[in-house]
Amino acid sequence: MSRIFQTLGADKDAIPLLWIAAPLTGLLVQPIIGYLSDKTWHPRWGRRRPYFLIGAILSSLALFLVPHSSVLWMAAGFLWILDASINISMEPFRALVADKLPNSQRSYGFVVQTLIIGIGTWIASNLPWMVSQLGVSDAAPKGVVPMSVKVAFGIGAVVFLISILYTVFTTSEYPPEDMEEFERERKKKNRFIPDILENIGKMPLTMKKLGLIQFFSWFAFFTMWSMANPALTEHVFQTPAPIEAAFDLTIASQAEAFDTANTAFQKSSNLVGSAMGVYGLSSMAFALLLALYTSKKRINRKFVHMGSLILGGVGFMAMYYATPETLKYCFILIGIAWGSILSMPYAMLSSSVDPKKMGVIMGIFNMFIVIPQIIAALGGINYVSSLLGEDAINAMTVAGISLILAALCNLFIVNKDAISYQPENEIN
Length: 428
Hints:
Blueprint: H1 2-7, H2 15-18, H3 21-38, H4 49-65, H5 72-100, H6 106-133, H7 147-170, H8 179-187, H9 192-201, H10 205-235, H11 252-294, H12 301-318, H13 327-341, H14 344-350, H15 358-365, H16 367-386, H17 394-409, H18 416-419
């Protein structure tokens, strides 16, 4: 998305604000979907799957249309639709993992989910480069998204829809344990806002502490998603997006120079995307190791998460010294942090909350993901990174510092079940 925004003329300092759709839609949509899915049950479609299906259809349409935007406001508008739709699909997925598994298997379950996410991240990040290697052009007129990006987004839309349809039609869900009580609760007067506020007010202490970890973790990753492309194309590849005002496009030589600079930017953006894909690959490898281990033995979730976040922080700060050849090693370290972020906090949370409220609790927990992103988008990234200087790469240093702060916050977690759930009679 940052590449599309820059292609359509966005200044790099404006990019975080253009990304604000992602956290704002999450803040609004996820608690609502979590609350509604807790109160949903259909004998055939279950509790979470209807929301997967609705979100998948809307998301796929938006994914296909985004790169065809002709102006900046259109791309930003499609991003709002895309993120709202993805949130409808994604929030129930986390609740489904907790619904399906006993406490003793939740670390394993969330780690396996992370493994699959890692595969998708690697493939998706490399898609524009792969499509370009097949001969699809990276060149495009001023203000037009290259065909390689359009094809990559189209493939993403198809894969997204097919994968969720597969989940909807092949996954079963457990009915409520006490159906009569569930029906009585469902028929009560809708108290959505009071119930949400009540659950926020009664938030377990462990959830609040995890929220602090999430705040710094997601500030860091939002910084990466929004600013990695401008930062790395400029600092590592030395091919920043050309600024139209710096060229007189009425002069043939100036127009040719703009096109050359723009094509160089698009090609280095492919390489940045390919390097970023490595974090999906390393998160997958890390998740695989955790999956093999947690399927047989307990782990100390607190210290696994702490160590992983420190490695990710080092990866971000090392980008300042990276070359095009060494950049991938930075993303390998970041992938370890990402693999842990997608699994350990949810495993710790699900072991310390009421399972009957898993959907709404997961939705509320999402507040600790979206609030830091909103702060980052509304100027947090620009302000903090400006303290280090004007170069875009300083945003990556800020992300590294933020991840290390998140790591240290793990020291506040003391709940034994959250740290390492000890099964008594549960078996595989």
